[in-house]
Design a protein that fits this description.
heterodimer; A: about 80 residues; alpha+beta; two-stranded antiparallel sheet; 2 helices; B: about 400 residues; three-stranded antiparallel beta sheet; 17 helices
């Protein structure tokens, strides 16, 4: 799983690192820092939850280790 | 309550969110707005005040300050200059946020948690033995205000004065709809606030401390310090944000949990649910029902043309309860929600500066309150009056089993 972060959209709501502290961190302005380029399998659920709760949709996760064609929205369906 | 005509009139496309009956129970109003007139006109205003309500539209408005500006024209509340940073749009806005955000980031305020927890218990001790309280007056007001005074280093002795000021600005005590009288109260209050701030700024310049005002006064803004006027413009907004919105959120949340015991019991039994519950309470109740914007570039939404100079009421509460975003449980408290992208703190570049502090206060309050007073109800016969705009409850009488104080106990 890869994480796409649109830094210009981040305004520091801080939901990502509140919900998924092992995947995301805060810089000194409270904006998101993504800790991984490729997310370890055991942290995929965290990565997904953090992205799904970003009110600015600044984060998206893409399934597949090497960033294959199968892109998945961070937002759960339904 | 007998109000006519209805708060939303789909035929004339008029709506009025500033009514106590709407503030008390806004869900039906929000639903009607979103489904029947997604761009409504403010009732009684000839033209050019639009109400935006659907999640996607609200999101767009918040994220496009070049079209929907937050500048001083959007809200006149007795100030001489734009409030900083709220009424400065990008790109000028970012430099102020770069100075201010680090003082109120989640890591920077984490040190407040233990004092805040002790404060909640001190306040609960004042009424727990009685088995009843007016939760608004005895908890929702003093708790966030005391945190604010600790953060800013402003004197506790002046609290009553600050509370009067913020009430004068946010909900002036004039007949409903008398906008001229309201503006007179706000303007006079503004004079008093500016005069008071001069003394505060003088003091912080001479005697800098660790408080957040000292940090603003001495902080670096692209190679210079803030001018006295700029600091006053920050403080003006600070008094309003710091003293009112958490009060309203606590009022709405505790009233809801008092009336919905199954949700309350879930939090009592499993306090780890509290952070998610805080987000849901913020979303479902969105105590700051709307934010104001002013149109800078002509824009069309749902066939309605918005012209430069038009005012826009961005109805955050309607967006936060939109089934298109939150599904069929949009109108319910659903703590297990997978995605909760609510805008209770606004969104886009003007996202609430104090949101991390607010979340800390709300979480600690709900954890400690439910530990000390697990079972409570609204006193029989009490009528809850919600103020329009920012939904505080004038009086929230609660009853519960009396409990022991913590005096003498370790805390």
């Amino acid at each position: 799983m890869k994480i796409h972060f649109e830094a210009s959209a981040c305004v520091g709501h801080g939901r990502c690192y509140a919900l998924a502290p092992e995947v995301y961190d805060a810089d000194d302005q409270g904006h998101c820092i993504v800790k991984f380029e490729v997310v370890p399998p055991e942290l995929e659920a965290q990565a997904r939850a953090g992205a799904a709760n970003c009110p600015e949709a600044a984060l998206a996760v893409e399934d597949g280790l090497s960033g294959g064609a199968r892109a998945a929205s961070a937002r759960p369906s339904g | 309550m007998t109000y006519a005509p209805p708060a939303v009139n789909p035929d004339s496309r008029e709506a009025n969110p500033y009514r106590p009956d709407v503030a008390a129970d806004p869900l039906a109003f929000y639903d009607q707005l979103r489904t029947q007139c997604p761009i409504a006109n403010m009732e009684g205003v000839p033209s050019g005040t639009h109400i935006i309500s659907r999640y996607e539209d609200v999101k767009f408005a918040l994220r496009h300050p070049e079209i929907f500006s937050s500048d001083v024209v959007a809200v006149d509340i007795g100030q001489d200059r734009p409030l900083i940073p709220l009424q400065i749009d990008p790109p000028g806005h970012a430099k102020y946020r770069r100075l201010m955000d680090p003082q109120l980031g989640p890591k920077e305020i984490a040190y407040l948690e233990s004092d805040t927890r002790a404060l909640v218990n001190d306040i609960v001790d004042r009424f727990i033995g009685r088995g009843s309280c007016d939760f608004h007056a005895e908890f929702s007001v003093p708790f966030p205000c005391t945190v604010f005074l600790q953060l800013t280093g402003l004197p506790l002795d002046d609290l009553e004065r600050f509370l009067t000021w913020k009430d004068n600005i946010i909900r002036p005590d004039v007949p409903l709809g008398d906008t001229q009288a309201a503006q007179e109260v706000r303007y006079a209050t503004g004079r008093a606030m500016y005069e008071y701030f001069e003394g505060v700024i003088e003091d912080r310049l001479a005697n800098p401390g660790e408080d957040v005002i000292s940090r603003f006064v001495h902080g670096d803004l692209e190679g210079r310090t803030l001018s006295r006027e700029e600091i006053a413009d920050v403080l003006y907004l600070f008094i309003l944000g710091g003293l009112d919105t958490v009060t309203s959120t606590l009022d709405c949340s505790i009233a809801y949990l008092a009336q919905n015991p199954s949700h309350r019991r879930a939090l009592v039994e499993d306090p780890t649910l509290v952070p998610a519950a805080v987000e849901e309470l913020l979303r479902l109740h969105t105590p700051v029902m709307q934010v104001m914007r002013v149109v800078k570039q002509e824009h069309e939404m749902h066939g309605v043309r918005m012209l430069p100079g038009d005012h826009v009421i961005v109805m955050l509460g309607a967006a936060d309860t939109d089934p298109e975003e939150f599904g069929q449980t949009a109108g319910d408290l659903h703590v297990g929600r997978d995605a909760n992208r609510h805008f209770a703190f606004g969104g886009g570049p003007h996202r609430c500066l104090g949101s991390h502090l607010a979340r800390l206060e709300l979480r600690v309050a709900l954890e400690e309150l439910h530990r000390r007073i697990p079972d409570y109800a609204v006193a029989e016969g009490a009528e809850l009056y919600y103020s329009p705009g920012i939904r505080e409850i004038a009086s929230l009488p609660l009853v519960f089993e009396p409990g022991p104080t913590l005096v003498g106990a370790a805390s």
